[in-house]
Amino acid sequence: MKRKIGTILAGVMLAATALSGCSSSTGTKPEATAPAKTEGSQSAAPAVTGPDISKSIELVWYLVGDANKDTPKVMDEFNKMLKKDLNATVKLNFTTWNDWQTKYNLLLTAGEKIDMIFASSWAGYFKYAKQGAFTDLTALLPKYAPQVQKQVSAQDWSDVTIGGKIFAVPNTNPEYTPNGIVYREDWRKELNLPEIKDLASIEAYLDGVKKNKQNVIPINGSAWNEISTLFSAVNGYQTIGGESGVVVAKNYNSPRDIVAYPFTPEYEAWVKKMKEWADKGYWSKNTLSSKQEAGDLIKTGTGAVYWRNPPGAAGFITDVQKKDPKMEIGYFPYTRMQGFAMPTMGIANGMAIPKSAANPERSLMVLEKIRTDAKYYNLITYGLEGYHYDLVNDGKNIVTPSKSQDAAKVQGYGIADWGWRNKPLMKAGVGGWDGLDKLNEEFSKMSKPDIFSPISMDYDAVKTEYAAVNQVIDQYGKPLMMGLVPNVDQAIKTYQDKLKSAGIDKVLDYVKKQATAYYDEKGIK
Hints:
The protein is an alpha+beta fold. Strand 14 and strand 15 (397-399) form a beta hairpin. It is built from 21 helices and 16 strands. The strands form 5 sheets. Strands 2-1-3-13-6 form a 5-stranded mixed beta sheet. It has a 3-stranded antiparallel beta sheet with strand order 11-7-12, sandwiched between helices. 41% of the residues lie in helices and 11% in strands.
């Protein structure tokens, strides 16, 4: 999920905090896993000479998503500083959002020399770590990133520890990232449609827009994220281990009740409803092949709904307000249907070093520079000061673009910087959407710990079946979910038969086994 995404995929995106309501511990004991708690760590850090940086090197880094058009300019300035301070440069690469999961998997399995890569629970961190894709950082952190070692909490170190080893550096920016939708609130008011609060009001909104706005497709472009996340929210389904397949926990209060949802009555009712929506034209017939984000078509006036998590919504709404102040965008988080929100784990976003890395030590040193030195952090995160942004309010906030630039020609700078975020260095934008703080306050009042994302699965025991099931989902499940089939009943039976033949029962049993082991360890009923 494009946690998703943006998510989602933001996100998508799916994360956790301490299981205070369900257990006295989450993961391996902090004193056994968190290097910040080890007295020997501090003494092991070089106090005088420091690590050897005599050799000049180029580090190859990868982030998910797309580069900014000004990324080359930003990295030129970044590398000038880095060359002077650490005798290194960074070649920053991106997966792009187009089929990023496949590209990300290839980067980690093809043996390409990569010195650091974005890592996340929603990008398969636990799976890849268990498969040996990442370098063990446990002994490297005290020497090459001692300040970062102290920044990260014992709980967050515990969350990224697998088998007693640390395989990633989680970000230190706690947040809530539930699924939800942005939509044309001005159109809702204009058409006198009901306030969005549940599935019925969402349907009324889509119907009102379709009937009253010429040349508008309510969910234009790619509508998969919008519909698949809504399906889970309406039914209370919870993804396990960050996966977005068809095996889910039925609801939060019964986490051990795990099913393959295509075999449930809820799914049958849903896909019949989606057939009605598709036939009414709430999305296009080519939605599954479309490469256009639904949000891009809101901006052009030909779409009305877009999947976003709250941080993603804040960025989207801020961007729309700058370009078209008359366009009013609303946001509806699905938490209001579910009655609770789950905060992210640290490894909802982080950075890891692939096993193929040629220079893991220097990469950790660069990461420490970014996370502890404002001039590095601001540059790689916000772009060029005096061009992309200005610092205001004693450096606590930024305005974008710089007041010295023509806002019609120069935009703020943005890339998928989530992996190195450190709350003390982050800057809030001036003039941005003020709804995010209100949402976070709302979420904190209904917060429950995430007891699903930390379940780690590598699917190695059922890799053949898992691959086959995913192919069936793509070929048969997605068209059915989007109502793009002539006969729903027949399509359901075909889909179920294909899943059975692919080995869904083995995959389901595997997930149940992994989840049960985790819940038994944590004392979760």
